[in-house]
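General statements about sequence and structure are easier to judge against a single worked case. When preparing material for the folding task, we compiled for one chain both its residues and its backbone structure tokens. The amino acid sequence and the backbone structure tokens for this protein are reproduced below:
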Amino acid sequence: MWDPASYLRFGGERARPFFDLVARIGAERPRAVADLGCGPGNLTAVLAERWPGARVRGLDSSAEMIGQARVGSYPVDFEVGDLRDWTPEADLDVVVSNAALQWVPGHEALLPRWVAALPPGAWLAVQVPGNFDAPSHLALRALSVEAGLGDFVRDAPVLDPAGYADLLAGAGCAVDAWETTYLHRLPVVPGAEHPVLTWMEGTALRPVRAALDHERWEVFRDTLGKRLAKVYPVRGTVVSFPFRRIFVVARTQGD
């Protein structure tokens, strides 16, 4: 289960890659825009502001996230749905997926399928995390094994920039792919949990939390927090948290 409030604790930091991604989309007057994995909808609203003449739709598998999105009264049609079952509409000129496809096993097969269904000159923009070998995930993976969860945390479930570029170029698109490592300086709040643990609770720790009962979860969480404190030390009043992101923007042939 997704918790919108937990996810939005670092809303500014999580939004930066979205703005860097959509800045590379050259569409001027799209007829329709889709945000796949729209979460709480705050960034989908940015798409509606940029293209006020477009019909904007947000899709997410989490009923909790869509419920939060609908509270915002954004000029967007929000729906609960599985990205694996989604098919582009005939007039869809822009597709955005920001930090969502890493949760969809086999998403590499979806991208060429979506491209084939998009109209000529349409844009597909994707961002996924590329931090699966970071100290945070290595600590999470090791502790999951120790806790008897097996290989619960997947190795990198995404391609590198060249992999996405090759995939979409092979589907006939013009492609721009790159990566960026953001250095987030997370504030340390006296008496609060380590900020990297708080960050992970909004995303990577969700499956672990769902797999453990309350007592085992509290032990797991406490142990992970101590390990994170060693690899992400406090310096002054902040913790430096490098976070690699992978981007690809593709345009279909024609127009």
Observations:
- Residues 143 and 223 are 8 Å apart (CA to CA).
- Residues 4-251 form a domain with the Rossmann fold fold (CATH 3.40.50.150).
- DSSP finds ten helices and eight strands in the chain.
